[in-house]
Amino acid sequence: MTLRKNQKLKKALNTDFMYKRPNRSFFLRTFITVLIVILVIVIWEIVIEHFNIPKRILPKPSDLYHFFQREFLTVHSSRYQTVLTKSLYSFRDALFGFSIALVLGSILGIILSLKRGIYAILFPFLFLTQLVPVPALAPVVAAILGYGYSTKIFIIVLFIIFPIAIAVRNTVLNIPENYSQLLHTYTTKKYITFKYLVLPSLVPTLLSVMKIVCTASIVATIIAELPLSVKEGIGKDIYNSFNNQMIPRVWVSVILISIISLLFFKALSYLEKYITTKYKYGEF
Amino acid sequence: MENSKAIHIDSLSALFDGNGKHLKVLENINFTVSSGSFVSIIGPSGCGKSTLFRLISGLPTKDTCKAEGKIRVNGKKPETASKDREIGLVLQKPTLLEWRTVSGNMQLPLEIMGYSKGSIEKKVSDLLKLLDLQGYEKYRPSELSGGMQQKVSIGRALAYNPDLLLMDEPFAALDEINRRKMNNEIINIWKKTKKTILFVTHSIEEAVYLSQKVIILRNKPSTIHKIVNIDLEYPRSKVQNSSKYFKYIKEIREYLNEASI
Question: Cβ of A182 under 8 Å from any chain B Cβ?
């Protein structure tokens, strides 16, 4: 058994991973970050205890821990939807709305780049969606489209489509003219130019804009859930918990959804880094 | 075919008319380029070289550009010749797609034109041999020098075997040593492929070194000032220090000075 373990260890030591191990500064940075987080938690606990700040204003980290324990670590945890399950439902919807917005925003951006007249007609309407804040817009949309799931997705799309469409339009218009000229000598078919030139040019823009709107899609999801009658979702839960003075639950929910947003952002950052380094799309 | 006209331009005029501007860029241009010849166009800045280049290549011109007269490439309108894949274009910048390798860039026109996979591989392999780029197939454009990038761009233009190669100051961004190297390369390619080459340049020496005929354009009005036949043998590296070579350079410089007034 020990021999087998040793062999496994030897095999592990021979992998490329060992040669690409993170440098010392990475460990140092991680250590400092963890230290700061611990320090903040300790100060937070002491300050609330010392000044007797009521739980309804700001709960202590230990309150949050107790809630966490009750929510996740008891035998009843599996019988109902935890705040994590609800957060993941919200994330799923955010991801769905985000994907639809990405496709529709790209199509819209390309349409806006075709003719200045189209841009002049459509842009004011598109801009209008950004002028009205989502909390104000959500009940209006719900009154028109109903209080169901489709309204939720519609609001997410509406909230994040603007930067996607504008970024795509600008990228298409900024493709150097000599490249379009060159493609024109090979073909006059626009879809071929689109396939070989426009589409690869859009990749870095879309990757960057995805990073910008990923967290916005989660914010939009949470806000959209408030006036709607959807049962799943952390937005609704935060709203109800707040009304019932379950402040630690609100705090844990907010921390959870923030962590999910951060992981979403990080995943897209790695994707961007991988694609831009390996394929060099959109570089001229 | 040897002495037939690859390019025939008759009474060509062009003007930019619109947006409050009325500017004549070309006036009564007449010349012919025989098949298989190497002809250069030279002229002061703003004399309409680029407009002439665009009109011959069949590229869409600006909406405000109005052209009159006759342009024929292999007896066809430039747009038709371009559609029939008879024109290859090499621009001032290499215009390579960074997300494609050297081979990928050379394959681009062939993929678009629907060549079979086997045929594409064969053609690209032949081009890499012709351009002495073997071993660089998998390199990305940014990993190559400016001269090599331009070679890939020439390879891409030759990929679909056009009769006419239009080159718009392709070596303008190169230093003197690389420019001369590329000049020799382009002469070798021309000799091997027997293509017709119309070469736009700013350099008198380059025009004399490369061409059989130099067309000098003038400013105000933008028309042909002189056409000089270069009666020097190839390879020009052998005659580049001869008095006859310098005489041509001096002659063209004088014409250019007159044309710039």
Answer: yes
